[in-house]
Amino acid sequence: MMETKSIMIVGVGGQGSLLASKLLGKVLMNEGYDVKVSEVHGMSQRGGSVVTYVRFGDKVYSPIIEQGEAEYIISFEKLEAARWTPFLKKGGTIIVNSQQIDPMPVITEAATYPANILEELKEKGVKIDDIDALSLANQAGSTKAVNIVLMGRLAKYFHVDYDKWIKAIEQCVNEKFVEMNKKAFELGYNY
Amino acid sequence: MKEIMIGNGAVARGLYEAGCDIISSYPGTPSTEITEFAAKYEDIYCEWAPNEKVAMEVAFGASLAGKRSCCAMKHVGLNVAADPLYTLSYTGVNGGMVICVADDPGMHSSQNEQDSRHHAIASKVPMLEPADSAESLLFAKEAFEISEKFDTPVILRMCTRIAHSQSIVETGERKEIAAKPYEKNPSKFIMMPGNAKKRHPFVEERTKRLSEFSEDCVFNKVEENGAELGIITSGTSYQYVKEVFGDKANILKLGMVNPLPVEIIKDFASKVKRVVVIEELDSIIETHCRNIGIEVEGKELFSCVGEFSQRTIAEAFGFEAKEFDKADSDIPIRPPVLCAGCPHRGIFYCLSKNKITVHGDIGCYTLGAQAPLTAMDSTLCMGASVSGIHGFNKALGKESEQKTVAVIGDSTFIHSGITGLINIAYNATNSTVIILDNSITGMTGHQQNPTTGYNLKGDPASKIDLETLCRAVGINRVTVVDPYNLKECEEAIKRELAVEEPSVIISRRPCVLLKYVKTKAPLTVNADKCKGCKKCMKLGCPAIRIQNKKANIDTTLCVGCDVCSQLCSFDAIESGDC
Q1: How high is the pLDDT of residue B328?
Q2: Residue A40 with chain B: CB contacts under 8 Å
């Protein structure tokens, strides 16, 4: 029996992690896995730190991921990558959008945004795959496509046919934005 | 068909397949999507009611008329609807009636973490609790069967982790249910003392029959694994137990959590050496076990506070925890904030600047309590700002009346603020109430309400005129301001606080996230003019930060609301169109 695998999608409220998790859940279900995707709506949407759990395997029980359990963390922002590192399994990989979004305590100067976050994580031995997803999203046609660029990058690590991802994008995304998102996915995949 | 659905979507699917005809709800995280998903099915009439009490009474009316009906709400919403609930238990139903209630252990988006099972026990209404999306669909359907068979409303208890987790469901077809004929039946449906006295024994007798039913209910499942340890659990806790123990413990999973079975539990306990009850929030199952003479462990191992996870369970049993890297201790927190361009910000800035005491309420604008605005003194429950300020001002008198306001959103005002305002007018305090009218129910994700002019489907509907409404209840001073205009807001606040009669200020501007709102080009800071005085930083706008001792505006976030430029003494913040 295949052990349950865990992927976390973390970021800042409003960055589009819900669509990313929907796409990932769809792809995994189409592959025949049991899947659970767990997210929190409400208060955390207002620019706060948000986290989505995706778990798949032969049979998935808990919808949430605990410390030391995630094979992959996809982080939409640098500071969030550092915040959620404890949830990474030993030997796991963090795919991170190298964008900086200041949280309110940094804006009000009650705290400082740590310098060289990703370098420090790398020094600690954490596998970091950083990607300028914002620029690639822009290149695809919208800054909002950061989520799909990152999914494209994650797909590199998966044994799922490229075409199946594209099919899932067609199923999950509003028709008007399908072409733009396919482009974003491709840019992330080939980065 | 196999589909992946969030628990709330699966509940909606279950309601649809069960032939449910009418749903009336009030939005509240984590219950909102039940009604939103249900509204996508043409066969179900769905509406947003002004509050949960109205929603439940609408569902009652539809049930009385013979149709299958439903209402959905969050846990604290059930308090608002408790009045009809407790007597609905007496009347019972005609068409089946299901009450969906979503608890929020861990308080992801709530003001308390009360356990709705207490309401089921106290009102003597049966309650089902699913543990994933597939069960959410199945239990929603079965709830109608139980409702009609036992002549009772049935509560379907969700929680955040079931409501907002997607898992795989097998969908079926809708079963059209013929409406039951409506027949006048005063002794069953008119709950005056003479009739209610006869209905109470019925409720007690029904509870007995429901207890017997729960002994055979397929939702109460024993997993016999020949272990010495037996775990009794329900809902999301079951998933954590399975994650940790797999088949290494005997497990009794309770899907019907009120009334709880007796014989199944006794039989289950007799086959193991140790029984542990694992339930989030309060010790309902544990207390029941003790009451029927079963020795169990429960809250000595598990907290009543917060939500569980597989780690909670593993730690309680002393299992080795998974290794992980600790995070650096200096990672700044990222609390939720009012969005860039949020129309609430201007009002809160004026209140903060003038050191006004603020009675707050439930909605996005509770974030006005956050630094640097910190313009809030209390937040209790829906509507409490308007009622609370009256009590506060009665207690402290004129001095308080001139430096205290209540703030409440448009939807919350209609939900239960209006009654407080009637009290202010009727029992006379010179209180000042600010209605933050952003033309939508914001926090729960943009639901229409009676002030927006649209119904749940987005079709045009009757629109409450807030000014006329306030005047009608006896408030003579009603002012409308644009929260993007700081001068206008500050003058109105000062003026209305000073006058010796009650007043309402309506701060009107639609939520900046609404699709129809046209935003302007982002503003820019002229670095030559900026002196780095940080006055603009007092707004707590996520788009403004200090870089190299000068203000800097993030053009990906700024929507050109122009509030910050009104604060700048050096005209350093310039329109993006220049």
Answers
A1: 81
A2: 30, 108-109, 160, 164
- Would you give the DSSP letter of residue B148? H
Q: Beta B256-258 vs B127-128: how paired, if at all?
A: antiparallel
CB contact under 8 A, B30 and A36: no
Residue B316 corresponds to which tokens in the numbers above?
A: 């309680």
Residue A5 near residue A57 (C-beta atoms within 8 A): yes
Structure-model confidence comparison of residues B577 and B239, the more confident one: B239
B 82-121 residues with CB < 8 A to A: 108-109
pTM: 0.96
* A13, pLDDT greater than 60: yes
Q: Strand A49-57 to strand A5-12: parallel, antiparallel, or no bridges (unpaired)?
A: antiparallel
Looking up tokens 């050191």, which residue turns up? B355
Please check the confidence at residue B329 and state whether its pLDDT lies above 90: no
- Ordered by where they begin, the domains of chain B are 2-215 (3.40.50.970), 221-324 (3.40.50.920), 344-508 (3.40.50.970), 524-574 (3.30.70.20)
pLDDT, averaged across chain B: 97
Any A CB within 8 A of B278 CB: no
Tokens of B277: 């009850």
Quote the CA–CA distance of B461 and B449 in Å, as a whole number: 10
pLDDT digits (tens, 9 = 90+) for A85-144: 999 999 999 999 999 999 999 988 889 999 999 999 999 999 999 999 999 999 999 989
Q: In 3D, which of A136, A143, A145 has the Cα closest to residue A181?
A: A145
Inter-chain CB proximity A67 and B324 less than 8 Å:
yes
- Asked if residue B561 lies in contact with residue B509, where contact means CB atoms within 8 angstroms, the answer is no
Across the range B251-268, mean pLDDT stands at 98
User: Rounded to an integer, what distance in angstroms lies between the CA atom of residue B10 and that of residue B477?
Assistant: 48
Q: Which of B250, B230, B238, B211 is CA-nearest to residue B296?
A: B230
Compute the average pLDDT of residues B151-175.
97
Tokens for B278, please give them: 């694992």
Task: Compute chain A's Rg from CA coordinates.
Answer: 16
Structure token pair of residue B502: 């009650």
Domains in chain A: how many in total? 1
Cis peptide before B372 (omega within 30 of 0): yes
Which of B220, B164, B68 is CA-nearest to residue B444? B164
Instruction: Quote the radius of gyration of chain B (alpha carbons, Å).
Output: 27
Whether the predicted interface score ipTM is above 0.90: yes
- Nearest CA-CA distance, residue A173 and chain B, Å: 15
Domain that holds residue A18: 5-189
pLDDT band at residue B372 using 50, 70 and 90 as cut-offs? very high
